[in-house]
Each structure stands twice: as structure tokens, then as C-alpha cells.
Write the C-alpha cells for this entry.
Amino acid sequence: MPVNASYEFANAEKQFQSAQTDEERLEGLEEMLRTVPRHKGSENIIANLRTRYTKLKDKIEKLKSQKKGGGGVKFSVKKGDMQVTLVGLTNSGKSSILKLLTNANPHIAPYAFTTQTPEVGILYYENCQIQIIDLPAIGADTFDTGIINTSDTVLEVVEKISDIPEVEKVLTKFKGKRIVVFTKIDKLDFNTKRKTLETLKTKKYNFVMLSARTEEGLDELKEKIFKSFNKIRVYTKQPGRAEHDNEPVIMLPNSTVEQIARIIFKGRTDVIKRTRIWGPSSKFGGQEVGVKHVLKDKDILEFLTR
């Protein structure tokens, strides 16, 4: 709030912060611009308000144009090998979770419907790259279930147990794994936290209780995310080298040497002269195996080519 702010400006600021739609936020900004004190000390504030007003107005006009032309707003995100989508009501803490888990830097604000387009980040876990997508909140003009339905895993982000049924209403066509993420637990007293934990257990949810502020529950969430994919990691190494490549090839359980070879050698297996293996599926380190050998998580393969 600027110095010497009037009662009218304070009310306009409250109107903006409590707005539920972009149109209501635009009205709040208009009123803030009308009532902001005019003196040398408020020049930067006025310039900031004008910039925000222009950007928001342009966004509203763009969305209206998209809706007229295509019957709704659709977004496309290129799917990664392992994809997670954050789904929740407004101000549930989705963007804070995205920032906590990944390299993304989403806009986080106390007002409703902050996220207007999908935000994408990468979680690096156990040498794997996991794509995390934060969707606009349920009820936003830009909310769309298309990305949800093709995701591998959904994080149902809630701050009340009563929010879970509301989130699950948009997951009727989703067939993947679900993890309930109960957020902002640093705001709960001991008894409320204990009762919430017991209720989630009783209802048999697959859940994590998380605080983005203190990072309580973060390691558990990362582990549950990775395990939700039911994938194995297979590493490769160059002949004569002791160390394997850092980034694994992500495969389904019970995949074979032949299947991973087709990925690495672009569909060909005739170039392979010999294959050696180290890890859980080998009888001993450096065992020579055929193309039908079934792989396990964290196996290391060495291909000698012709």
C-alpha cells in the first residue's frame, strides 16, 4: 500500500485481492488506479498498476478471442516419459509444490486463479527426469482436462479433506495413479494434524502430508511420485569404461535386452555382437546375455557392436 493511501484505495486493494475472476481483478485494478494517491512517492506504484492493468486486459481479450475461434481454450504439452499433473482448487498450493519439486519458477500470489496456463517443470530424482505440470485451478476459465487424461500420475492438491471429492469430479476419465497431497500442514495444530492423518489413513487414500514452507513430507512425496510409474531404470556403459551413463533409459517392468537395444540403435538389433550385464538381473558382474534376457531396475548394460 502506498504512503498516505486513502480509505478508497485500501478498499480497492481488498477488492482486487479477493477477486475470483480476471474480470473482477481488472475492475479492482481500475479502482486502484482511480483512487491511488498522486504524489512523487507513488510514481512507481502507479506505473506498476498501469503495467499490470494492461497485461491483464490483453490476456482477457486474448482468451475471449480464443474462445470465439475454437469453442474453448486448449493447451498442448509434449509428454515426457514420466508425466505428473498437479490438480486442485484455487489457492490450494499447486504452484508452491511445482516450485518446490522442480526448476520452474511459477508466479505465486495470494489471490485466486493465479495460474492461467500450464506451468511445466522437471523433477530430477534418482537420475530420472520427471515432467511436472501445474494446471490452472479447477473452475478457472482456462482449466482443461485434456492434459490430465493423458498423464501417468495426478497429484490431487488439497488443504481440506472435503476438497478431495471436488477434485475427483474432474478425474472421471483419468486412468493413472493418484496421490493426494494435503498441503500447508505447517498451519495445523498438533491435534488437527493428527486427526487429518488418521482420516486419510481410514479412507485408504494414497497420500502425503506436505508443507511447502518447511519441506516436511517432500522426500516422501518424491519417492511416491517415482514409484507411481511402475517403471525400471536401465543404464548403459561404453565398452572398456568403468562408469555407466548418468541418465537411465526408462522401461516397463520385464522389458528385455532386445527392447532396449531397439531404442538405443533405432530399431536395429543386428548391429549387436555381444551384450554384458551388471546388476540385479545378472548372476555375476559382466555376465554375457542374449537379447531375450529380462531386465530389472538399475541393471547396467554394455553393448559391443559389429
In short: The chain has a mean pLDDT of 85. The chain is about 35% helix and 20% strand. The first helix runs from residue 7 to 17. The CA atoms of residues 60 and 77 lie 22 Å apart.
